[in-house]
Amino acid sequence: MDIDELRNSEIELHGLTKADGVYTFYHDQTNNIRKLYIDDGRLNVAELKVFVLGGIVHEGAPRPIEIQPLREAMRIQKTAPEIKLEHVAKGDFLDVLRSRKLTTLLRWLIDKGLMIHYHELDPFYWSVADIIDSIVPELRNPMLLQHQALLKSDLVAVLRCELASTIQLFHDFGYPGLSPEARKPFLDKLIEILEHNSAILPDFNAMVLKGVLQAGRALESLDFIEGYSPNLLIDEFSTFYQGRIAIFKNSTHIFDMEKVIHDRLLETPLTSQGKPVTNFRFADSKAEPGLQISDVIVGVLGKMHTYFTNTSREDVAADRAALSGPSLENANLLSDLISASHAANIAFLHHVASGHDVGKLDLFLRFPDGAHGK
After folding, report:
1. pTM of the complete model
2. Which pairing describes strands 252-256 and 280-283: parallel, antiparallel, or unpaired?
3. Count of CB atoms within 10 A of residue 51's CB?
4. What are the tens digits of pLDDT across the range 258-313?
5. Is 301 exposed, middle or buried (0-12, 13-18, 19+ CB in 10 A)?
6. What is the rounded CA–CA span in Å between residue 188 and residue 185?
7. Could you give the CA distance from residue 342 to residue 36 in angstroms, rounded to a whole number?
8. Can you tell me the distance from the alpha carbon of 44 to that of 170, in angstroms, rounded to the nearest whole number?
9. What are the contacts of 184-187 at 24+ separation with CB within 8 A?
10. Any idea what DSSP says for residue 273?
């Protein structure tokens, strides 16, 4: 697989101006379910959580990261072979924010001049987005193209209202492997769900979304949801690893050992301009302090983004207003870290998620400029 085509399209699409920089990335992951599929009308996982691939990053070539003083400051037991999230905080996102050990870690990152990077993927959004992507470009309507991301976010919001019914619908029609004959009845069912739950959207948004779904019934094909393996929503996650390697091809990437991903990358070797890509390796986190810190960071970020997908905007605002003590301090430190990382390079942060949920991130962390990279 040649990475340059993927790299160039991402740089152009997102206006990435610093992708040629030289950095050292430490990558860990959380909530990697390996596959997402529907079996007998149910998802293969009990609870959908947001996948995060990310960690810490610094400019330049790899350099030693001394964490013994950090271990001592956080009072990590000497018998613990490495720092993991469970040593720092437990519980859901709001519980994690109360941790004084997390405060110590976040301040340490800032003091050391380390930044964070991450790729966030909401698996439900990823599974649903192809419906809109199959319709809107074919309608050749500039206004709809401009609001394609919003249409996807609105559809996700509606279908979350009836998640069990949506999954059963996908099962019944073999989504994303619809037959041509199923195109119209499938979209009719989506329109029914929209009509039952349209009150959660502004009237104009609901009207436009319904019009798009209605227009899709007349198309000759729905390219991204017809002809694929029935009921297989996500096949694997190695694509996201490849993407990070490709965008920052001049940097060094150190990944926590994940055998499935390791083997997949060996099966499809990466090349650039005909030459093997060798800027990445897999390592044991016990021997790589950068991976240990990344474990904590992605754990916190995974809990944070899962909280946003499961919590209304009104409740997010109320939870944010109620923060005090360590929770408020940690929220401010997270805001500072994400803002500084985004300012250093907008390619450090990437969201494959509903724009409504990314808006909750802005609402909760209250970024100084009112927003952050999407």
Report:
1. 0.93
2. parallel
3. 25
4. 888 888 888 888 888 888 888 999 999 999 999 999 999 999 999 999 999 999 99
5. buried
6. 5
7. 30
8. 13
9. 184/217, 187/213, 187/214, 187/216, 187/217
10. T
Each residue's pLDDT tens digit, 131-181 = 999 999 999 999 999 999 999 999 999 999 999 999 999 999 999 999 999
Other CB atoms within 10 Å distance of the CB of residue 243: 17
The SS3 assignment for 249 reads: coil
**Rg (alpha carbons) of the chain, rounded to whole number:** 21
Residue 177, SS3? coil
Evaluate if residue 373 carries a pLDDT over 60: no
SS3 content of the chain, % helix, strand, coil (to 5): 55, 15, 30
Let me know: does 139 contact 212? Beta carbons within 8 Å.
Answer: yes
Instruction: Give the rounded distance of the alpha carbon of 23 from its chain centre.
Output: 21
Q: What is the mean pLDDT of residues 42-69?
A: 94
In whole angstroms, what is the distance from residue 36 CA to residue 50 CA?
12
Which residues lie closer than 8 Å to 39 by C-beta, 6 or more apart?
Answer: 231
Backbone CA torsion sign across 159, 165, 167, 173: negative
| Vertex 13: Cα angle to 8 and 16 (nearest 5) | 70
| Residue pointed to by tokens 């013994």 | 68
